[in-house]
Amino acid sequence: MIERIIKKNIENRLYQGKVIIIYGARRVGKTTLSKQILKEQENSGKKVKYLNCESFNVKSNIETTNEIALKDYLGNVDLIVLDEAQNIEKIGLILKLLADTYPQIQIIATGSSSFDLSNQVGEPLVGRSREFILYPFSMEEIRTKYDLFALSGKMDKILRYGLYPSVFDLPEEEALEELDNITSKYLFKDILAFENIKNSNILLNLLKLLALQVGNEVSYHELAQQVGVSSMTVQKYIDLLEKCFIVFSLHSFSRNSRKEIGKSKKIYFYDLGIRNMLISNLNKLDLRNDTGYLWENFCILERMKFNGYHKKYLNKYFWRIYSGQEIDYIEEHDGKLDAYEFKYSSKAKVKKPVKFLDAYDNTSFNIINSDNWFEFLI
């Protein structure tokens, strides 16, 4: 069992009068994590309860604003988990009612679609909640089970099959079956339920295009033409994909120089296994022509996990000028700019972004490759 980093962070926030909300894509381990917390709390003498909010019976009993009926159903508990809470109608008001009426009860609510759960709990739970995001396994987490030499040996497979908990460490044939299961049964589940979206083909085609454009700037107009919908529809679907933790975006850095490209974005995937399944390419790295883009997605994704789990709040960008010079990734914090270029091979030649370094003071430049990745991500 690989322990998740946010587990201790969550445990440190228990019984402080706040509703704890755990967001994350389906199958990243929210249920496993919450049940681990429940079990440990129960072993310490607490009365606990787990409720799957996708169950009709649970929904029918929870969907009420009658606090007496709610308390009667929940029973005499210290800690309760409401798993996939976005399925409960008016969940925000219900959580507010429980938090205000029974502050002694610790509530943990999980959700796989932040557009449902966050929209519902946002205003009612202002000042009453603490939010956490659970990602697929991070390199920092699996580092607790493997040494750096072993992790480097697994890098080829990690870049191809990703780090979903139910996929990682499986033999390749079984990993392929599990990825196919996740992609076909879970990937669109929350999105298609939102606003009664029916046409999964549009979403699938859009995702395939985004998968093929990882590491490149995206144009809503061009995507719309290729998918056969409006630019507004593409923008809406990408927003939903982000809120379901399937993709995330990186915006361009610009300080209004006419040579810099502003208001542009790149799209990356929360899991490389999902990305590769979408384009039906799980070939080994020496048989691929997209290894550089996989490495870029991997480094930015793992850095996002690291910063998120350790509560490092900073701005993130990429940078490019019209003449073609670019930087894969920039972090802005404390008046400083840290620039990074990602090259899988340690033998790859990289030119310093002289124009960027000349234009901005207090800036560092680093190259992250397969030999030194752990210094950046662990």
How does this model look, in words?
With 378 residues, this protein is α/β, with parallel strands linked by helices. The chain has 2 domains: 6-133, Rossmann fold (3-Layer(aba) Sandwich); 139-377, Orthogonal Bundle (Arc Repressor Mutant, subunit A), CATH 1.10.10. 43% of the residues lie in helices and 17% in strands. It has 17 helices and 11 strands. The chain has helices at 6-11, 30-43, 56-62, 67-74, 91-101, 114-121, 139-142, 148-161, 172-185, 189-193, 200-212, 220-227, 231-243, 272-278, 291-309, 354-359, 373-377, and strands at 19-23, 48-52, 79-83, 106-111, 129-133, 247-252, 265-269, 315-320, 326-333, 336-342, 363-368. Helix 8 runs parallel beside helix 14, helix 9 crosses helix 14 and helix 12 (220-227) packs across helix 13. The longest helix is centred in the C-terminal third of the chain and has 19 residues, at 291-309. The mean pLDDT is 92.
How would you describe this structure in keywords?
about 375 residues, Rossmann fold, Arc Repressor Mutant, subunit A, 2 domains, six-stranded mixed sheet, five-stranded parallel sheet, 17 helices, about 45% helix, globular
Please outline the helices and strands.
Elements lengths: L5 H6 L7 E5 L6 H14 L4 E5 L3 H7 L4 H8 L4 E5 L7 H11 L4 E6 L2 H8 L7 E5 L5 H4 L5 H14 L10 H14 L3 H5 L6 H13 L7 H8 L3 H13 L3 E6 L12 E5 L2 H7 L12 H19 L5 E6 L5 E8 L2 E7 L11 H6 L3 E6 L4 H5 L1
Parallel strand pairs: 1-4, 1-5, 2-3, 3-4, 6-8, 10-11
Antiparallel strand pairs: 6-7, 8-9, 9-10
Helix pairs in contact: 5-6, 8-14, 9-14, 12-13
